[in-house]
Specification:
The chain contains 3 helices and no strands. The chain is an all-alpha fold.
């Protein structure tokens, strides 16, 4: 999840200890090696949009 709790200077330095000024891109590249799916952190707005879709009429499908 792309939040300040995950994307911050301390995390960047943790995942890029050999870099003088690690960036978000450096973190995403390094952290991606730990995931089974090579995906970048998901934006919170994407999660919110999906939740709204699922709870709204468009997410109900034909099951009533």
């Amino acid at each position: 999840m792309a939040t300040e709790m995950v994307l911050n200077d301390a995390a960047y330095k943790l995942f890029g200890p050999d870099l003088e000024e690690p960036t978000r891109d450096d973190f995403v590249r390094a952290a991606g090696t730990l995931n089974a799916l090579p995906l970048p952190p998901t934006e919170s707005s994407d999660i919110s949009a999906e939740v709204l879709h699922l709870v709204g009429n468009s997410g109900r499908g034909r099951h009533r």
